[in-house]
Amino acid sequence: MATVRLTPRFVAALETDQGQVEYWDDLVRGLAIRVGRGGTKTWFVRYRQNGKHRRMKLGRFPHLSLAGAREAARKVLAEAQMGGDPAETRYVRRRADTSFGALAEEVLAAKAETTREKTRRERRRIVDTELLPHWKDRPAASITRRDVVQLVERIAQRGSPIMANRTLAAVKLIFNEGLRRGFPTLEANPAHLVDPPRPEEGRGRFLERAEIKVVWEALEEEDPVIRTLFRFALLTAQRIGNVCALRWADIDEADVWNIPAEAFKGRRPHLVPLSAEALAVLDALRPLTGGMEYAFPGRSDGKKPHITSINKALQRIRERTALPRWTVHDFRRTFRTHATRAERPAHPKDPAGLGVAPHVADAVLGHKEASLGFGRYTGEPERYLLAEKREALAKWGAFVRAAVEVSHE
Question: Does residue 267 carry a pLDDT above 90?
Answer without folding.
Answer: no
